[in-house]
Write a structure and sequence with these properties.
seven-stranded parallel beta sheet; alpha/beta; 33% strand; 8 helices; single chain; 2 domains; UDP N-Acetylglucosamine Acyltransferase, domain 1; Spore Coat Polysaccharide Biosynthesis Protein SpsA, Chain A; 356 residues
Length: 356
């Protein structure tokens, strides 16, 4: 079985956080989201992966390289003008050949990974395995309606969903999908929809298995989803992830699991609450309070500030403010212009200056 991961601007709604020339990828718990997917594929026994690159590549090639660091062999496939997930399958045709494959959307996170899907495919040998999860806003997703455990309908982002079962970003297909995607025409959105391909397989052959997701699943395409994913991942990390070589001055306070990187420094009079990760050479200065549920990137400076349930990316400075539920891009300064004690919620891109 081969893997196909879609990465780099396939419908993401977080574009304001990164620019086209950025050399980094969006992180969760101080790791690029894409890396979780690559590790999940490797854990499921998949070794050959096609990485479909959209228009916003954000240093993906530099970070992933040949995939060897993940135990994978990665082939890059360009999709400069994404026209849907089924179009990605078309573009990857030469790479996929006549092998069954798993398609994974690179902005998705699954607590249990993809191994349960691979096992279901191997045991049932259907034409497709699709994952589903109940969601509060099914109109944002492909929606599956079931009757007695069998598919009754499949729709892509319906205005009036017939169920709350959303398609998660993991799909397994046999080679039977290839003639189906070649026969598809554009939807009303102008895209070749993978939901149309699944519906055609189901209508023609009836061999589509539906697998509920085990544990939590997050599509991180929105800022609030990225923050929730960050909290979920931090809360599920093993104890070893919260070890580190940081310096805690006498008089600093550490409560709960806190991981520190090389050269991290926490001053006397500063408090860090877990679960929280502090990246390499991050500094938490006197009078600051960080956590819980924070991912603080490398070389971030937090001065006389409170930060809760937030992601602060590399090289940024937070001075004299109270941040909650915030995402701050790289090399950005957020500081107080006038004294105040109110909490603020921000989503700020890279290389910005914000005065509150």
């Amino acid at each position: 079985m081969r893997g196909l991961i879609l990465a780099g601007g396939h419908g993401t709604r977080l574009r304001p956080l990164t620019s086209t020339g950025n050399k980094h990828m969006l992180p969760v718990a101080n790791q690029p989201i894409l890396f979780y997917g690559l590790r999940h594929l490797a854990a499921a026994g998949i070794r050959e992966v096609g990485l479909v690159l959209g228009p916003i590549q954000e240093g993906i090639r530099e970070g992933v390289r040949d995939g060897g660091a993940f135990g994978l062999s990665v082939t890059y496939i360009e999709q400069p003008d994404p026209r849907g997930l089924a179009d990605a399958v078309l573009r990857a045709g030469d790479f996929l050949g006549e092998e069954p494959f798993l398609m994974y959307l690179g902005d998705n996170l699954l607590q249990s990974g993809v191994t349960p899907f691979v096992r279901a495919f191997a045991s049932e040998r259907p034409d497709a395995v699709i994952g589903v999860a109940r969601v509060a806003h099914p109109e944002r997703y492909g929606v599956v309606e079931l009757a007695d455990g069998r598919i009754r309908s499949i729709e892509e982002k319906p205005a009036h969903p017939r169920s709350d079962l959303a398609l998660v970003g993991v799909y397994l297909f046999s080679p039977a999908v290839h003639p189906v995607v070649r026969s598809l025409g554009p939807s009303s959105r102008g895209e070749l929809e993978i939901t149309d391909a699944i519906r055609a397989l189901w209508s023609d052959r009836g061999r589509v298995a539906v697998l509920p997701v085990e544990g939590w699943w997050k599509d991180t395409g929105r800022p609030e989803d990225l923050l929730e994913a960050n909290s979920l991942v931090l809360g599920s990390l093993p104890e070893s992830a919260f070890e580190g070589a940081g310096v805690w001055e006498a008089g600093s306070v550490r409560e709960g699991p806190v991981g520190t990187g090389s050269g991290t420094w926490v001053a006397a009079g500063a408090t860090v609450l877990g679960p929280t990760l502090l990246g390499d050479r991050a500094r938490v200065e006197e009078g600051s309070r960080v956590g819980p549920e924070c991912a603080i990137g490398p070389e971030v400076v937090i001065r006389s500030s409170t930060v809760r349930r937030s992601i602060i990316m590399a090289g940024s400075r937070i001075e004299g403010v109270r941040l909650v539920d915030s995402i701050i891009g790289r090399n950005t300064v957020v500081r107080a212009g006038t004294p105040g004690d109110r909490e603020v919620r921000l989503t700020v891109g890279d290389s910005s200056q914000v005065v509150l």
